[in-house]
Design goal:
By secondary structure, the protein is mainly beta. The protein folds into 2 domains: 1-35, no CATH class; 36-222, no CATH class. The chain contains 3 helices and 17 strands. The protein has helices at 5-19, 23-33, 85-88; strands at 37-41, 43-48, 54-63, 66-71, 76-82, 111-118, 127-133, 139-144, 150-156, 162-165, 169-170, 172-174, 184-186, 190-193, 199-203, 209-213, 218-222. The strands form 2 sheets. It has a 15-stranded antiparallel beta sheet. β3 and β4 form a beta hairpin. The longest helix has 15 residues, at 5-19. The protein is globular. The model is unreliable at 1-21 and 27-32 (pLDDT under 50).
Length: 223
């Protein structure tokens, strides 16, 4: 059952003020305080650094461990379903869509499925990627359910991010802000991340150079 934490917290606060701060009240508040949450962007704007134009704008919402982002430019919803907040906190937050090869999501941990559909008709599936992990939340595979094909990963760095891709590809990581979250990922393109672990820019050194902006504050993804 989904619980709205804020009204519940206010109700509990009123109850404590009226009845005194007993051990049972303290225990309930401690449970609420220990609720696991992570901040994710509310609004995401793609900006093409080459043309100078904004190309896509996403308005997002959360429901439990599902993160939904509506592209207001093409009216498509991208949904990310996560295993747990604990797993998400081990990795970065990538853009909602699979543009620039982000269907692979190599450093976004705990992501079980990335799916898109028209906002007016969720039964039509445009994209569907599923992901598997080992017991240490290390990415094992990414499957394109709609297009077909599976990519597998192996040989992990000290933080559990994959270094090798099936077919002979390789990935490298740079850590500037945090010893455990990448500030940059190097593969066919270079992906840069801010101190929050949110995607900041992606560039292939040629025709693609896109930056990402977050003007709408944050949402709380909780379990």
């Amino acid at each position: 059952m989904k619980i709205n934490a804020l009204p519940l917290f206010l109700a509990l606060s009123i109850l404590i003020n009226c009845q005194g701060g007993g051990d049972s009240n303290s225990s309930v508040l401690a449970i609420l305080a220990a609720r696991k949450c992570i901040s994710v962007p509310r609004i995401i704007i793609y900006h093409d650094e080459i043309s100078g134009y904004d190309t896509d704008e996403f308005h997002c919402s959360v429901s439990g461990t599902k993160y939904n982002c509506l592209n207001i430019d093409d009216d498509r919803v991208w949904s990310r379903t996560y295993e747990s907040v604990s797993a998400v906190s081990l990795g970065v937050i990538d853009p909602p869509s699979v543009a620039f090869g982000f269907g692979v999501q190599v450093a976004q941990r705990g992501l079980l499925e990335l799916k898109s559909h028209p906002s007016a008709n969720p039964s039509i599936v445009n994209d569907d990627y599923t992901f598997t992990y080992d017991s240490f939340h290390q990415l094992l595979s990414s499957t394109d359910v709609v297009g077909g094909g599976t990519i597998t990963f192996s040989n992990y760095d000290i933080n559990g991010f994959p270094l090798d891709i099936s077919g002979g590809g390789s990935i490298a990581y740079q850590y500037n802000y945090s010893p455990t979250l990448p500030s940059a990922i190097f593969s066919d393109s270079v992906m840069f991340y801010d101190a929050n672990g949110w995607i900041n820019e992606v560039s292939d050194g040629g025709s693609t150079d896109v930056s990402f902006h977050y003007p709408g504050g944050t949402l709380q993804l909780c379990e």
